[in-house]
Specification:
Shape: globular
Radius of gyration: 18 Å
Structural class: alpha/beta
Family: Belongs to the IspD/TarI cytidylyltransferase family. IspD subfamily.
CATH topology: Spore Coat Polysaccharide Biosynthesis Protein SpsA, Chain A
Bound molecules: cytidine-5'-triphosphate, the ligand C[C@](O)(CO)[C@H](O)COP(=O)(O)O
Number of domains: 1
Catalytic activity: 2-C-methyl-D-erythritol 4-phosphate + CTP + H(+) = 4-CDP-2-C-methyl-D-erythritol + diphosphate
EC number: 2.7.7.60
InterPro entries: IspD, IspD/TarI, IspD/TarI_cytidylyltransf_bact, Nucleotide-diphossugar_trans
Order of helices and strands: EEEEHEHEHEHEEEEHHEH
Site (Transition state stabilizer): 36, 43
Distance between the termini: 31 Å
Strand content: 15-25%
Strand order of the largest sheet: 1-6-5-2-7-11-8-12
CATH superfamily: Spore Coat Polysaccharide Biosynthesis Protein SpsA, Chain A
Number of strands: 12
Number of helices: 7
Largest sheet: 8 strands, mixed
Amino acid sequence: MSRCRCQAEARPAAVAAPDPGADLTVVVVAAGSGERFGHPGGKALVEVAGRPLVAWSLLAADAAPSVAALVLVCRPADLAAMEALVAGLPLALPVAVVPGGDDRQASCAAGLDAVSSEVPLVAFHDGARPLVRPHTFEAVAARLRADASLGGAVAGCPCTDTVKVVRDGTVSATPDRGNLWVVQTPQAFPIEVIRAAHRRARSVGTDDASLVEAMGLPVAVVDAQRNNLKLTYPEDLAVVEAALLAAEREGE
Ligand SMILES: Nc1ccn([C@@H]2O[C@H](COP(=O)(O)OP(=O)(O)OP(=O)(O)O)[C@@H](O)[C@H]2O)c(=O)n1
Ligand SMILES: C[C@](O)(CO)[C@H](O)COP(=O)(O)O
């Protein structure tokens, strides 16, 4: 089997799990247009700290012992470039490269179609979060394994800023911060749960967990990695790059 399977023409075949102990497929979504970042053609292939942005997430997921296979979702125009990128990275796991959709949720659904049903857990991760560490994939998968009643487990951390609800430039409410968390990716789910959540989705959510919450299932939050930043605006680049270089220097 070729390690990288580009899915430009046909619907992807399922990716087999190479290690019987590994029970998680990671879907890295990188098919966005990067509008807020302001880079024509999206930001996934922009060089950040010496590598294309999305490469950092692929390498981190590949190094997590629970991960059996990877799916990379990219802009249709980037399929050949992404296939070449994957072929050139020192990845141990099989990778399926598939085209994404018009919004993040559609890209996640496209990635999910390429996941083998033989691997019981699936996690979605933003290719725009290059600081993710292998232990964060382990943490969300472990939380799911520890409690069979959960519909999902997501990385996040308690809010440290005060959050305001703002309408027309004026504050309309200040929610109790004691209950507020900011959530990131990875977001992990039992495969049958997230497949059902996508089938039933009636609206477009800003994350994957909201689809599972809409089914009335409990989703756990795991305080795993506070610096798991998302590269969204141009000014994020210097912060993310400095953190990646520091982590490399420290051998993390
Ligand atoms: N149609 C889309 C939209 C987003 N994403 C992915 O979802 C993640 C989070 O999205 P975001 O940071 O908003 O990226 P963009 O959509 O590229 O940014 P923008 O909204 O500024 O255009 C990114 O890794 C992005 O590539 C995707 O795979 N497919
Ligand atoms: C999924 C997410 O990263 C969780 O914080 C976030 O909602 C993605 O938002 P974006 O606007 O698509 O970047």
